[in-house]
Amino acid sequence: MTAPELVLTPSEMKQADREAIASGIPGIELMRRAGRAVADAAEKIASSGGRIVVAAGPGLNGGDGFIAAALLAERGYRVSLGLLGSLDHLTGDTLEAARDWRGETPPAEEISFHDADLIVDALFGTGLARDLEGAARLVVERMNASGKPILAVDLPSGIDGSTGEVRGLAVKATHTVTFAARKPCHLLMPGRAFSGTVEVADIGISREILAAKGGSLFANHPPLWLHALPKPGLMSHKYERGHTLVASGGATRTGAARLAARAALRVGSGLVTVASPPEALGVNAAHLTAIMLRGCDGPEGLHAILQDTRFNSLVLGPALGIHSGTRAMVAVAVQARRSLVLDADALTSFEGMASEFRGAFRGAPAVLTPHDGEFSRLFKDHPDILDPASKIEKTRRAAAYTGAVVLLKGADTVIAAPDGRTAINENGTPYLATAGSGDTLCGLIAGLMAQGVPAFEAACAGVWIHAEAGASFGPGLIAEDLAELVPGVLRNLLK
Ligand SMILES: NC(=O)C1=CN([C@@H]2O[C@H](COP(=O)(O)OP(=O)(O)OC[C@H]3O[C@@H](n4cnc5c(N)ncnc54)[C@H](OP(=O)(O)O)[C@@H]3O)[C@@H](O)[C@H]2O)[C@@H](O)CC1
Ligand SMILES: Nc1ncnc2c1ncn2[C@@H]1O[C@H](COP(=O)(O)OP(=O)(O)O)[C@@H](O)[C@H]1O
Ligand SMILES: [K+]
């Protein structure tokens, strides 16, 4: 079985580099391997004998650029290289790499990109320390204006390796070659969009070293959670596949619950029931078939329903209303110790009250699924959670604080467990930004938890399945389509 893909932060990568060096691979050898991987990638883009312009920076990223430039010249390309800063200031492995290069080293701000078949961006990698200014900014502006293919070394210069944010200005690469493992910026927006096609080159740093220095951050793909997905056995009966309960809003706000309920059923929850306020029973009944319906009058009603212990997974929030009644329903659910997905109004009803969640979920697994707005409202009195520039850090802190799995939605959804395990999702499509799409996601996660999938794996699998379903449909997608696309996604996953 394929291992989950490890993603390393720049500081973890630096430690892994050091460990590899300590274990016997000299730094210059790592750099030569990195440079060779860049040259190999360049060869796939630029036709033989073409013109390649390398912009090299003052650090190790620039060193990779020198190695690649020398190799490409040997291989018959017409290569020129511009250096940011002075040759006299190069040190260590970068200085040694620069000795391989036999050509001129004019200032990077003076080289021309207009007749290049390919530009190699080796200005800055994981060592970017501040916003681009002056000469660096000028070079990046001219690269981007050239309209030529750009191959970024490790990551596009100007992108922050850990957050994916643009530091003032960044190279808009068409291709990136990174080393040993992807970094957060290759998956997080906007860095992902600036990276183009990303290739990971093996430079001989073992998975053991990568896992020892990283090991808690992953790309969200099936190898991370496929082992946890249930397959019904020949003798299974529906109660073994769990019973999901979804709370409905009032008479004019019932659709969200039904979307979640349908998704829970499609993802394999053996039974699904919508818990409806009395005044909305008629409208819910008119739209439900395989899904069951129960009257539920507020927190007391929910308490009564949950006396039946077969309801093992709950969705609370979509269209429930922002008020104390919703808070009371959450309290009932928490006390009942069932697997819980809290979304939308169940989060906003706790605006500025995140402390109410602290330690609340010890009795049963919980997943919170905020989008950015809901996240900011819930944690508005917690600058330590809201302020980090990194979406990974924010989500991790929220999970550690609440003790729940936190899933911060968006084009680059991040899922974090209280124990630190974190995944970044990347198979989505902007067509998922449609009304009711988040409700469907809640249902998928609750439906998986109903079948015994642990919270982190259920959240990761739910996000991936949701995104895969959306991407398989494309233009014209509406939330009602999503649950119907789930069987096709599952069929491919479980075959
Ligand atoms: N370690 C290894 O074994 C391996 C590492 N590898 C490679 O190393 C790369 C990381 O190298 P790195 O740590 O030297 O950082 P890097 O990205 O070159 O930048 C630092 C330089 O840029 C400068 N600088 C920063 N920001 C700036 C700004 N805004 N504007 C202007 N200047 C700025 C900064 O100057 P300072 O801040 O000191 O003034 C410093 O001189 C990594 O991405 C990968 O490609 C591979 O070879 C595989 C083996
Ligand atoms: N540009 C995008 N690319 C990929 N997925 C997206 C994008 N925009 C939104 N999504 C996904 O669509 C869903 C929207 O959920 P949410 O904001 O709760 O919407 P709603 O409240 O309308 O259901 C989330 O799963 C989110 O990650
Ligand atoms: K770069």
TrEMBL record:
Q: Name one GO biological process term.
A: nicotinamide nucleotide metabolic process
What are the binding positions for AMP in this chain? K409, G410, A411, D412, T413, G438
Residues the record lists as binding K(+): N61, D121, S157
Cofactor(s) for this protein?
Answer: Mg(2+); K(+)
State which Enzyme Commission number(s) the record gives: 4.2.1.136, 5.1.99.6
Q: Which Pfam families match?
A: Carb_kinase, YjeF_N
Ranges of residues in domain YjeF C-terminal: 221-493
One MF term from GO for this chain? metal ion binding
The record lists (6S)-NADPHX as bound by 60-64, 125-131, 154, 256, 371, 439
Instruction: Give the reactions, separated by semicolons, that this protein catalyses.
Output: (6R)-NADHX = (6S)-NADHX; (6S)-NADHX + ADP = AMP + phosphate + NADH + H(+); (6R)-NADPHX = (6S)-NADPHX; (6S)-NADPHX + ADP = AMP + phosphate + NADPH + H(+)
Annotated InterPro entries: CARKD, Nnr, Ribokinase-like, YjeF_N_dom, YjeF_N_dom_sf
Q: Which CDD domains match?
A: YXKO-related
Is the keyword Nucleotidyltransferase assigned to this protein? no
The answer to keyword Glycoprotein applying to this record is: no
Residues covered by the YjeF N-terminal domain: 13-211
Q: How is the cofactor bound?
A: Binds 1 potassium ion per subunit.
SUPFAM superfamilies reported for this sequence: Ribokinase-like, YjeF N-terminal domain-like
Annotated keywords: ATP-binding, Isomerase, Lyase, Metal-binding, Multifunctional enzyme, NAD, NADP, Nucleotide-binding, Potassium
Q: What's this protein's function?
A: Bifunctional enzyme that catalyzes the epimerization of the S- and R-forms of NAD(P)HX and the dehydration of the S-form of NAD(P)HX at the expense of ADP, which is converted to AMP. This allows the repair of both epimers of NAD(P)HX, a damaged form of NAD(P)H that is a result of enzymatic or heat-dependent hydration. Catalyzes the dehydration of the S-form of NAD(P)HX at the expense of ADP, which is converted to AMP. Together with NAD(P)HX epimerase, which catalyzes the epimerization of the S- and R-forms, the enzyme allows the repair of both epimers of NAD(P)HX, a damaged form of NAD(P)H that is a result of enzymatic or heat-dependent hydration.
User: Subunit info?
Assistant: Homotetramer.
Family in the record: Belongs to the NnrD/CARKD family.
- What is the recorded name of this protein? Bifunctional NAD(P)H-hydrate repair enzyme
Give the taxonomic lineage as stored in the record: Bacteria, Pseudomonadati, Pseudomonadota, Alphaproteobacteria, Hyphomicrobiales
Gene encoding this polypeptide?
nnrD
